[in-house]
Each structure stands twice: as C-alpha cells, then as structure tokens.
Amino acid sequence: MTSDAPTDSSPTSKAQLAYEWLRDRIVAHRFTPGYRLVLSQIAGELGVSTVPVREAVRRLEAEGLVTYEKNIGAQVALVDESEYVTTMQTLAVVEGAATGFSAPLLTSDDIAKAREINQRMRESLEHFDPRRFTELNEEFHAALFLHCPNEHLIDLVHRGWSRLRMLRNSTFSFVPGRAVESVAEHDELVDLIEREADPTDVELAARRHRTATLDALLKFQHSQD
To answer: Which residues contact 34 (CB under 8 A, 6 or more apart)?
Structure first.
C-alpha cells in the first residue's frame, strides 16, 4: 500500500478520509474483488485508530462494495455479473427520477453547461478513450440532476455509479458504437428539458437512455456466446 495518511484530527473527518481512501482503491480495482481488508493494517497505513476505519468499512458494506463474513472479516465484494444488470436497471429508475425532478429547476446556464459537456463527449469520439468518455458521461448526467430536491435519490444515484465502477471499468469498452448513440440521445434529452417538457417525459427519456446502454451490452454479450 502507498501512504496517503489523513491529517485532520476529528474522528468524523478521519472516518470520511478513510472511507474515500478505501473507496478510491476499490473502484479503481487496486483492491480487487475478494481482497481482504485488514483493519489494523489499514489503520497503520493511514496513521489512525481502527475506529474510523471500521466506520468506513461499514459505509462501504452498506453500499455493496464490501462484504463481511464471520471468521473471515471484511473483504472487497466479489463480482456477480448479474449484479451489473440489476444495478443498471436500478440506476435507470433512480437517475431518471432525479433528472425529472431537476428538469424544471435547471437554468439556461445549467443547460448550456450540459451541452458543453456533451460537445466534449462528441469531440472525444475521434480518439476514443472509454474510461474518459465514462467520466464525461457522469459529469453530463450530474449536470442534469443538479437541482434534484430529493437528496436520497441523489445518494442512490452516486451509490449506483460507484457500484458500476467496481463491476466494470466502462461499458463503452465493449460496445464503443453505443457512445455515438449516447451523445445523440444526450442532445435529445437536453432538447426536451429546454422545451420545458413534462418532467415525467424527461424522467422516462432519461430512463430509456440508461436502459439502452444495458441493452447494447447484453446484445453484444449474446453475440459472443
């Protein structure tokens, strides 16, 4: 392990920093599925007690990134391919809802920002980097549900994103053609919002957009069987 020890002395801040330190390594696949998380070792690496590390592990367990088994302890959750499907399906629902709630509250500046991000996505297609495209994709969608008043929904969306990062680096690595379609669907989604379409229509469009990515991957996998 490399040391990035937290320096803030408050217990809450130590737990937060321990959480971010662990989460970053899990979603980046530096701590791979099945990797055992030894609390005392992590605490020593970070220069803290095991208390904030244990709290961080509990948060990660609640998010599905870590599992705990008696006589084994905490370990990075094993990847279940079917979980990718259920995570994408769930994300389609909560991300769609968050976007629908946010749509009436978006300003012209917010819409312009979303279009600017999507333009960067379009330009990136020429020298395609799936991981960078995925990062921009998250940035685009975050701009659209920016004003969602339901904080619980936002939390569920970010949890879904975290889980997807651990399950798969980027869907677009497997179906790069989907990236072109995704950018076009982004334009249509922003057009809907700019026309002040019914929030329910916006929600359903955002949901269909996310589901289309899942369908493209499943179709690709089927073709490889």
So the answer is: 75, 76, 78
CB-based contacts of 181: which residues, under 8 Å, 6+ apart? 212, 216
Find, among 56, 61, 55, 57, the residue nearest to 77 by Cα: 61
Residues 88/209, Cβ–Cβ less than 8 Å = no
pTM: 0.70
Burial, 45: exposed, middle or buried (Cβ in 10 Å; 0-12, 13-18, 19+)?
middle
186 vs 180: CA distance, rounded Å:
10
* Number of residues written out for the chain: 225
Structural domains of the chain sorted by starting position, each given as residue range(s) with its CATH number in brackets = 11-76 (1.10.10.10), 81-224 (1.20.120.530)
Per-residue pLDDT of the chain (225 residues; tens, 9 = 90+): 444 444 445 556 899 999 999 988 887 778 877 889 999 999 999 999 999 999 999 999 887 788 888 878 898 877 666 888 899 999 999 999 999 999 999 999 999 999 999 999 999 998 888 888 999 999 999 999 999 999 999 999 998 998 887 776 667 777 778 999 999 999 999 999 999 999 999 999 999 999 999 898 888 777 765
- Spatial strand order of the sheet with 36-37 comes to 36-37, 73-76, 66-69
The answer to whether 166 and 66 are in contact (CB under 8 A) is no
Helices 39-46 + 50-62 axis angle, to 10: 120
Q: What are phi and psi of 73, to 5 degrees?
A: 100, -160
Question: Quick one: tokens of 108?
Answer: 């012209």
